[in-house]
Design brief:
One of its GO terms (molecular function) is methenyltetrahydrofolate cyclohydrolase activity. Pathway: One-carbon metabolism; tetrahydrofolate interconversion. Its EC number is 1.5.1.5, 3.5.4.9. The protein has about 290 residues and is α/β, with parallel strands linked by helices. It folds into two domains: about 100 residues, Leucine Dehydrogenase, chain A, domain 1 (Rossmann fold); about 120 residues, NAD(P)-binding Rossmann-like Domain (Rossmann fold), CATH 3.40.50.720. Helices cover about 40% and strands about 15% of the residues. The chain has a six-stranded parallel sheet with strand order 1-11-8-7-5-6. Strands 3-2-4 form a three-stranded parallel sheet, with helices on both faces. A two-stranded antiparallel sheet has the order 9-10. The longest helix has 21 residues. The protein binds NADPH dihydro-nicotinamide-adenine-dinucleotide phosphate (NDP). The site of NADPH dihydro-nicotinamide-adenine-dinucleotide phosphate (NDP) has 26 residues, from helix 10.
Length: about 290
C-alpha cells in the first residue's frame, strides 16, 4: 500500500516556514508585495484570486488585486501592468488566466517585467528553465518539487515520466526534473504505447486532464506517483490516476483533491518572497 503524500500537511509546513521568513524580512524592512491583475468576473478565477489574497495576508505579505472589467482593452490592461512594473514597492505581478478572448494572452504575459514574473510564464523565464535556472519555477511545478523533497523522494538518477507537455505544468515540470538530474521522458497525446513509458517511471507525474488515464497496470511497483489532474466526474473531483488501484501498487501517491492543489497557492507565496529577496537584498544583507 502506497504512502499518501498529503498536500495539505506539506502546504502547512511550507506556510509555517514562509511566515517565519517573511517576519525576518520585515525586520530588515523588506515588505514583499504581490499584485494580482484580475480581468472580468469569471467566478472560478475570482475565487482563486480570493484564496491567493487570503493566504498572502495570513502570511504577512502585502497583496493587492487590480480588478478590470471583462471588456477592458489590451492597451489599458498593458498600461496597468506597466504601472506595476514601474512601482518599486511591487515585487511580484500575476495576471490571472484565462483572459477574455479579445486579449492576446502571450502578448500580455510578455508585458510583465521578467524580474516580477511570479508565475514564471514570461519567455525570458521559460528560456531560463531550458538552462535549468529560472528566477522561479511555475507554481504547480515548484509544488511538485516541494512534495518530492519533503517526502525525501530522490530525484537524481531516477527515471521520471511526465504525461502532459503544457506550458503551465507538463513542460516546466519535465525541465525541473531534468535540472535535478532525473532521466526524463515527456509524453503527450501522440505518444504511442503510453503505458510502455509510464511503467518504467520511478517518478510518474500525470498532468493530462483525463480522469482514469493511469491505472495500476500502467505503473511500476513502488513508483512515486504525482497526480496533477483535476477532473469533475459525477460531481466529484478526481485526478488523472485511478487512485484506488494505483494506491495498492505505488510506493507513494498524491491524492486528488488534497495533493498537488494545496501546494500551488503556497508556492505562489514562496515565489513572491524569492523575487522580493532577489530584488531587495544584496549579498551582504543575505
Ligand atoms: P492542458 O490541456 O493544457 O495539457 C494537457 C496535456 O496532456 C497536453 O500536453 C496533452 O497532450 C496531454 N494529454 C492529454 N490527454 C492525453 C493522453 N490521453 N495521453 C497522453 N497525453 C495526454 O492541461 P494543463 O497542463 O493546463 O493541466 C493538466 C491537468 O492538470 C488538468 O486536469 C488541470 O485541471 C490540472 N491542473 C492542476 C493544477 C493543480 O494545482 N493541481 C494546476 C494546473 C492544472 P498534447 O500536448 O499532445 O495535446
Amino acid at each position: 500500500m502506497a504512502r499518501i503524500l498529503d498536500g495539505k500537511v506539506i502546504a502547512a509546513a511550507v506556510k509555517q516556514d514562509l511566515a517565519m521568513e517573511i517576519a525576518q524580512l520585515r525586520e530588515k524592512e523588506v515588505q514583499p508585495k504581490l499584485v494580482v491583475v484580475l480581468v472580468g468576473d469569471d467566478a472560478a478565477s475570482a475565487s482563486y484570486v480570493r484564496s491567493k489574497e487570503r493566504m498572502a495576508r495570513e502570511l504577512g505579505l502585502e497583496a493587492e488585486v487590480i480588478k478590470l472589467s471583462a471588456d477592458v482593452s489590451e492597451s489599458e490592461l498593458m498600461r496597468q501592468i506597466e504601472l506595476q512594473n514601474a512601482d518599486d514597492s511591487v515585487d511580484a505581478v500575476l495576471v490571472q488566466l484565462p483572459l477574455p478572448e479579445h486579449i492576446d494572452t502571450d502578448w500580455v504575459l510578455m508585458g510583465v517585467d521578467p524580474t516580477k514574473d511570479v508565475d514564471g510564464f514570461h519567455p525570458q523565464n521559460i528560456g531560463r528553465y531550458a538552462i535549468g535556472s529560472p528566477l522561479v519555477w511555475p507554481c504547480t511545478t515548484a509544488g511538485i518539487l516541494e512534495i518530492l523533497e519533503r517526502a525525501n523522494a530522490p530525484v537524481a538518477g531516477q527515471t521520471a515520466v511526465v504525461v502532459g507537455r503544457s506550458r503551465i505544468v507538463g513542460w516546466p515540470t519535465a525541465q525541473l526534473l531534468l535540472a535535478h538530474n532525473a532521466t526524463v521522458v515527456q509524453c503527450h497525446r501522440q505518444t504511442r504505447n503510453l503505458a510502455e513509458f509510464t511503467r518504467q517511471a520511478d517518478i510518474l507525474v500525470v498532468a493530462a486532464g483525463q480522469a482514469g488515464l493511469i491505472r495500476a497496470d500502467d505503473v511500476k511497483a513502488g513508483a512515486v506517483v504525482i497526480d496533477v489532474g483535476i477532473n469533475r466526474v459525477d460531481g466529484h473531483l478526481v485526478g488523472d490516476v485511478d487512485f484506488d488501484s494505483v494506491v495498492q501498487k505505488a510506493g507513494a501517491i498524491t491524492p486528488v483533491p488534497g495533493g498537488v492543489g494545496p501546494l500551488t497557492v503556497a508556492m505562489l507565496m514562496k515565489n513572491t518572497v524569492r523575487l522580493a529577496r532577489i530584488r531587495r537584498l544584496t549579498k551582504e544583507d543575505e
